């Protein structure tokens, strides 16, 4: 029989120890910052009912679902994002909980995407959400957490930028331009893609799908290409509906300034977000040079809990993926070097002392030290090589003369310094 070989599925990753250490470095920063802001960790199942996503997340994600029928004929799918699961979980539990609820999670998510840089078919995503608070303070809090997560990993405002918009403001602006209410979703989707599409393509779509005449379509594109708040204020600031939304946005930016994060955020009307459920402020965080795709995205989604069958509860949050973030950290040389480390490696010179080595190893492990010893008889030279490979800080040498005197030699591997230690202290 010929030998079968198995390749990893495209878009999935193995995590060898150095890669896992890097992942843990990222997760560690995420968890530390979540804790600093007083968020509690939760999780849910990786498999969910298919209907949880259909018509709630939006076409793009639904087209990428890993879905199938289970043996009980249920339509199920691997979770492509965490937010609908969070809404489902809280729909069942939020009534008994004090608001606002501050939760975070680091789920592995699955999307059958076309493979490209920064996009895989599985990724880990830090999700941080505030549920039950409609005030803008919650919007400020979540973007601050996201930015601090990046700062914790060594990224500064020269490296990353949160681009922020508001779907309510965009709605007010589009209505003022003359887009009809029922054409708003179409207009949103054109604007969501405006940066990646050629200008004439967006121009004709704004006419065909958003119902604008050529001049309005052109001036909309013009407004979007500048993207800034001044353009919106200058052209539409005197309209009540727009002015109300502008006040919100001003308060948002003032708060981030007060938190010391002002240099990390910029208003940009082109940020719409691909997911359907957002209702207010939305943001995406990119590297400043725009070499990579978005590191993070999020916003307010005040109607999702209701959509999945619960009470109307306001909510806001974000997701930050480990894939783009990992690329960005490596690019900035912020990925820590991986070096395994243990406290002691026990070198056994005579096999008659193996039992003694085992006793010392176990006793030291019980005290919390990381310890290794050769698993079979080996030359002293090989044992020192093994100690080096294991990253041993110290080597305990069980030499026959020293052991006969009730001692062992302890060598500090960095300085080469040696001292004798009584065996009774070691075991
Ligand atoms: P999202 O924009 O779809 O939002 O994903 C958030 C981040 O996850 C992206 O910016 C990206 O870094 C990463 N990501 C997404 N898909 C992939 C992929 N296929 N491969 C690698 N990384 C990926 C959401 O999922 C929302 N549910 C976030 C949220 C939480 N909104 C409110 N709360």
Description:
- It is a single chain.
- The protein has 427 residues and is of the alpha+beta class.
- The protein has 2 domains: 17-331, Bira Bifunctional Protein, Domain 2 (BirA Bifunctional Protein, domain 2, 2-Layer Sandwich), CATH 3.30.930.10; 342-426, Anticodon-binding domain (Rossmann fold, 3-Layer(aba) Sandwich), CATH 3.40.50.
- The chain is built from 16 helices and 17 strands.
- It has helices at 17-36, 59-62, 83-93, 136-152, 167-177, 184-192, 199-208, 214-226, 229-236, 240-258, 304-307, 322-331, 354-366, 380-390, 400-404, 423-426, and strands at 40-41, 47-49, 67-69, 75-78, 101-105, 108-110, 122-131, 160-166, 265-267, 281-287, 296-300, 315-321, 342-348, 371-372, 392-398, 407-412, 418-422.
- The strands form 3 sheets. Strands 1, 5, 6, 7, 8, 9, 10, 11 and 12 form a 9-stranded mixed β-sheet that branches. Strands 14-13-15-16-17 form a 5-stranded mixed β-sheet, with helices on both faces.
- β13, α13 and β14 form a beta-alpha-beta unit.
- It is elongated.
- The model has no long low-confidence stretch (mean pLDDT 95).
- Histidyl-adenosine monophosphate is lined by residues 81-83, 111, 113, 119-120, 123, 125, 127, 129, 275, 294-298, 301, 317-321, 323-324.
- The site of histidyl-adenosine monophosphate has 25 residues, from β7, β11, β12 and α12.
